[in-house]
Each structure stands twice: as C-alpha cells, then as structure tokens.
Design a protein that fits this description.
The protein is built from 15 helices and 16 strands. By secondary structure, it is α/β, with parallel strands linked by helices. The protein folds into 2 domains: 372 residues, Metal-dependent hydrolases (TIM Barrel); 44 residues, no CATH class. The longest helix has 15 residues. Bound molecules: zinc ion.
C-alpha cells in the first residue's frame, strides 16, 4: 500500500464471484462490458460463475465459453465448473481449466437430489480425487502463460481446487457435515445472516478447510431498502435484517472475501415494463434514465409483492464495491488493510491467483462523487447504489505493467485479458 499526493496504490483486486452472462444472455452483459466494468471498479481479475443459459457443466461447453471469452476480455478471467451432481465424469477434464467447482445444492436433476448427503459426498470425493495435470503444460492464451520453455510436468500437481456452495441455512449444516468427512476446501458464497455465519465460525474454529464471502449489498443494504428499491432490491440471498447486517460487520475477521456477486439483469427484466417502454434494440442501455423514472412513476400503481415475485434475482456490483468499501474506510468503519485482505490477499490464496507486482490500481482517496448509472460500463446500466455519495475513485489500472484504464476510459482492446489456469496448492489453504 502506497499513498502519494492522496493517490493510493493497491494491488489489482480480485472478485471471485461474478456472472458475466456470456454466452447465452449477452443482452444483460458480455465478456467485454463485464470486464470493462471490472477494470472501472478496480478489479483486474474476476472469476465467472457457470450458470449460463446453458450451464457450463460439460468440458465441451467450458471450452466454448473460454474461446468466446478470449476474444473479448479486457481483464483476467477465471472460470468455475458447474454441477448438480450428474456430471462427475466430466470433472477430470474440466479440472485442468477451472479455478473451482460450483455446486447448485437446491437444484434437482432427474432422480438426483442435492439434499441427499450421499450424493454430496460422492461429488466431494469425485472432485477431490481428480488432480490437475499441469498448469504449464496447458497454455490457454497466447500471452505470458504460453512460454515455450515450460515443459509439461510428468507428475500431476497436487492441487485441490475449492468447491463453492451457497450459504443457505440448512444447507450450510449439510455441507459442513460433509467437509468434516472429506476435507476439501469449501467456500461458502454470499453469507448474509447471523445464523449462517455462526455455523461457519464454529466450523472454522474446528479447523475445517472452510472459507466464506459476503457481498457488498449485504454489508450496505438491509431488507428495509427493498421498500425503496422495489425489484432492484431483489437478490439471492435476500437482503437481511439490520441485526444480520450488524453481525456481519462485527465478525468481519471471520469473513475471508468480499465478492460482488455481480449479477446483471436489464431494467426491463427487473420491472416487466418491456411492452410499455421505448427500448433501443441496438443500445439496451440507452434511455435507462427515462426507464428508471418511469419505474418510480409506476411504483405506486404496481402491486409490489406481485412485481417482486416475478423479478429475476441479482444486482450488478463490480463498479460500486470498491467505492463503497473506500467510503467505509473514510468513515472509519473499515481499514485499507481490510480491503487488501478481503479483496486481494485472501481471494488470491483461496483461488490460487499468482501475484504480479505490475498489476495495480491507483485511487484518489479524497475524490467524492455520486454513483450515477449513466457512467457505468455494465450493460445493464443500473445500480442499487445509484445516487449514493461515495469517497474514493479509481483513476488508473495497470495489468502486467500496461495501463488498461485511465480516468473512465478503457485503453486496451478486447482480448487483452488472459484466462486463468488452475494453480491452487493445498498448502495455500493453511495460510488463510
Ligand atoms: Zn452468484
């Protein structure tokens, strides 16, 4: 950490939980707009979730996704493999190209039910018994990772890439019971309640290989905000109570990662107003202000519960997370060291992301500004934090020594970013 002339220099941040929607739902976001949003938000590395329209649950789908991403990304991107328990035979191949596996515990496929603990154990065993072959032997990008000198390793790397699950009350207990038997690193995503975090704290105290993340929306919003946000305040898990929020802040030392869970949907999808609004086919972000105004005009005429029920879950977060955290620093609720721990050090250990001293961000810690949906890079063009005054603005971003972002402008072409390869060693876990 370096502060010179009010400019704070930090390592490029890592967001291990984003949904870039590409391929399949590129009207919401794509690899270019999503990674541009990442850079604008101070993130140089992000890890994309597998729940695309056609889920990334086969090696073939994974390869297709990687090929699409390579051409569009402007920051570095890693991927998770998805599973509901019916694709165990794909794990071996997929493990060479992903950063971890994401399990969808509440999904049911045919006769397979993730509520069945035996199935969960089977998945854990299958994932932990497959090893990655060698990160050097499989260059995925024409960039720095494909050095000719590197020879394929003869022995498989002893690496256990993490399993990710949602923190969802009863399922937290279930998963912890499986981790007690099969000790593979398990990451609980977006912990939102005191109940869930208490169980995780207990498991951590029992020395289980467990980590967890929280989202900025659960740190900065509560269920009360749904009244004003309407459908824009609907996400999974839902915004919790003030008490839950306070518990998260009080127990930040047990939280390993802040993850944005960037999950864009269009304004039309959130509001079901498609038929009544002027939408530019070519520029879905155009007229967003008009649409948001329309929404507030309409709010009184809509039955809120009904509207909220039909609304897709999720909010964007890549561009607002760091400004919110820096604002908390300026209010002395957080330290800069906490941001480094939660948004860089721990995610890099958990997900095996190599440090690069030339990958960094510069922040004007004194610049105060109002979050405005019109200046966001995310294709969805809105934010639950629209109109919030924040303090601390990302001015420039460097990736491997190249300036990629400067004062609101992306300076590199699509395809600049590289695809991350699995690199996590077991010993990393012990240092968290
Ligand atoms: Zn998510």
């Amino acid at each position: 950490m370096l502060i010179r002339n009010f400019m704070l220099t930090l390592p490029g941040l890592i967001d291990p939980h984003v949904h870039l929607r590409d391929p399949g739902q590129t009207h919401k976001e794509d690899f270019y707009t999503g990674t541009a949003a990442a850079l604008a938000g101070g993130y140089t590395t992000i890890i994309d979730m597998p729940n695309n329209k056609i889920p990334i649950a086969t090696f073939a789908r994974l390869n297709e996704k990687i090929a699409i991403a390579k051409k569009k990304i402007v920051c570095d991107v890693g991927f998770y493999f998805g599973s509901v328990g019916d694709n165990l035979e794909e794990f071996k191949k997929a493990k060479n190209k992903v950063i971890g596996i994401k399990l969808y515990l509440n999904e049911t496929t045919g006769n397979l039910k993730m509520t069945d603990l035996n199935l969960l154990e089977k998945i854990f065993t299958a994932w932990s018994s497959t090893k990655i072959i060698s990160s050097q032997s499989m260059p995925l990008h024409s960039g720095i990772l494909s050095t000719k000198k590197s020879k394929p390793l003869k022995k498989p790397l002893k690496s256990k890439l993490p399993i990710l699950v949602h923190a969802e009350e009863k399922r937290v207990e279930d998963v912890i019971s499986v981790v007690r038997k099969i000790k593979i690193h398990t990451h609980f995503c977006h912990v939102s309640t005191a109940y869930d975090l208490k169980q995780i704290i207990k498991a951590k105290e029992d020395n289980l290989p467990i980590s967890c993340g929280v989202t900025p929306h659960h740190l900065f919003l509560t269920e009360k905000d749904v009244e004003t946000l309407g459908p824009f305040g609907k996400m999974k898990p839902p915004l919790a109570t003030k008490k839950d929020q306070e518990f998260l802040w009080k127990n930040l030392k047990y939280i390993d990662v802040i993850e944005s869970d960037h999950a864009p949907h269009t304004v039309e999808e959130k509001t079901h107003k498609k038929d009544n609004l002027t939408i530019s086919q070519h520029n879905p972000v155009a007229n967003v202000n008009e649409r948001l105004n329309y929404l507030s005009l309409e709010k009184s005429q809509t039955a809120p519960d009904k509207t909220i029920d039909k609304t897709p879950f999720g909010v964007p977060g890549l561009e607002t997370t760091l400004p919110l955290l820096l604002t908390a620093v300026s209010e002395k609720r957080l330290k800069i060291e906490d941001i480094i721990r939660l948004c860089y050090k721990n995610p890099s250990k958990i997900f095996g992301i190599k440090a690069d001293p030339q990958t960094k961000i510069e922040i004007d810690i004194h610049q105060s500004y109002i979050i405005n949906h019109k200046s966001l890079f995310t294709k969805c063009g809105w934010s639950p934090f629209d109109g919030w005054r924040v303090k601390g603005k990302v001015k420039s971003v460097f990736v491997r020594g190249t300036k990629v972002f400067d004062n609101g402008r992306i300076l590199v072409k699509p395809g600049f970013g590289i695809i991350l390869q699995p690199n996590r060693q077991d010993s990393d876990r012990d240092r968290i």
